[in-house]
Amino acid sequence: MVVADVLGPDFDAIRREEYGYLDDAGLVYLDHTGAGLAARRQWRAHAARMSGATYGNPHSEHPASVASTALVEHTRQAILEHFNADPDRYAAVFTANATGACRLVGEAYPFRRGNRFVLPIDNHNSVNGIREYARAAGARTRYIGLTGPDLRLDGDALRAALTRRRGLLAFPAQSNFTGVRHPLEWIDVAHRHGYDVLLDAAAYAPTNVLDLGAVQPEFVAVSWYKVFGYPTGVGCLLARRDALARLRRPWFAGGTIEAASAQGGWHRMADDESAYEDGTLNFLAIPDVAQGLTWVDEVGIRAVHERVDRLTAHLLSGLAELRHHRGEPMVRVYGPGTVDARGGTVALNILDAAGTVVDERIVARDTAAAGICVRTGCFCNPGAGEAAFSIARRTLRGAVLRTAAAGGTLDDYLTRLGLPSGGAVRVSLGLPSTIADVDAFLDFVARTYRDRPVDPRGLAPRLRC
């Protein structure tokens, strides 16, 4: 056992016994917002299950099918229990990822002329994309800006937006760019004004308690590989049953209907969550979600939260202390400089001695060569990036038009915006992270960039957002 008594988990033992493959490979893994990591016990449990029984397509009644169905339904129950969601009030709909969960809401939500889709500019593109469904239905999209150096949601602007019309509010419980944890109290505020709420919990769920008995958004999007690394290709839409009943899917597919006629032109949707699960579920991987939840619950999500908080404080303090020899800061952090209402996701840029941003592709190249895993780019969150780099809406529109007219490249677009870099560097912490991981990154930055020129040759193309 690697979990201690009342003193809490022994995270050093957990790292050694369950995630020692990182140290065996000489890797410093600091991309937990990109993907969590699986414990060795998860792999062992998967192998034991797959070698111990036969599993078939759940859409049948033979023994192999029934075995799959039993594990899928057990996993649904485990998910609801993990989030303290009343099964009479909430349904767990399996999707390919959090993006698939957002698409389900977007395509089926009853947008219409006269209502609104409200969202902060701090949102993943999987949420931003819902605006296309709203636009097609004649609904208005209203973006809410961020304020102050911490890049937190403009509360006054959000309140004002919610007092007009009704519709859907979508926001991340935790920003995948800055790590800001946006207040869950906005859920109740939205409800008081007649809005439904889509909560993106993809970056929040790995290190925070989400109690759906206390806060009750209509929809919650989750990707399980973000929480515990494996399985990939399995996400979840947690949906209030009353809200699910108001959705209207624009199509049907195998597995979603009770009956259909080809020649008669009619169909009848299933009357439960299976109406939203297209085709055959990933029945060989879904049971691994239950195993991952067992592992996270054994360690304790509150303990993980406290651990990541301490490591994030150490990281932020170390970044603030990094200086060139003449005292110039080596790092610019975007978002909160403390752990107050923020998670273990830290976006930054490296600065040279003249205060110029070092192209994030240079940092990506150098960290990769050193065996340090960090993310670079805009992290599929262009709004938070625009706020972090203080780019005005008018400037953005002008740069787009001029670049398009000239047939320019992404680098041309960035030049017109006055940006020396196409994005930021993201360091993110999770359950397996250690002080040694944080110190390795801080030491690497100091050794590699303090008062030293950088070599821009051989850079890879910019990553897509």
Could you characterize the architecture of this molecule?
This protein has 465 residues and is an alpha/beta fold. It has two domains: 11-30 and 300-378 and 423-449, Aspartate Aminotransferase, domain 1; 45-298, Aspartate Aminotransferase, domain 2 (3-Layer(aba) Sandwich), CATH 3.40.640.10. The protein is built from 18 helices and 17 strands. It has helices at 11-18, 20-25, 40-52, 63-82, 98-108, 125-128, 130-136, 155-162, 186-192, 224-228, 241-244, 286-299, 301-321, 360-369, 382-388, 393-406, 410-417, 435-449; strands at 28-29, 90-95, 116-120, 140-144, 146-147, 152-153, 167-172, 196-200, 219-223, 235-240, 257-261, 266-269, 331-334, 345-350, 372-373, 375-377, 424-428. The strands form five sheets. It has a seven-stranded mixed beta sheet, sandwiched between helices. A four-stranded antiparallel beta sheet has the order 13-14-17-16, with helices on one face. α3 runs antiparallel to α12, α5 runs parallel beside α7 and α16 packs antiparallel against α17. The longest helix is centred in the last third of the chain and has 21 residues, at 301-321. The mean pLDDT is 91.
Write a brief caption for the model.
The protein has helices spanning 11-18, 20-25, 40-52, 63-82, 98-108, 125-128, 130-136, 155-162, 186-192, 224-228, 241-244, 286-299, 301-321, 360-369, 382-388, 393-406, 410-417, 435-449; strands at residues 28-29, 90-95, 116-120, 140-144, 146-147, 152-153, 167-172, 196-200, 219-223, 235-240, 257-261, 266-269, 331-334, 345-350, 372-373, 375-377, 424-428.
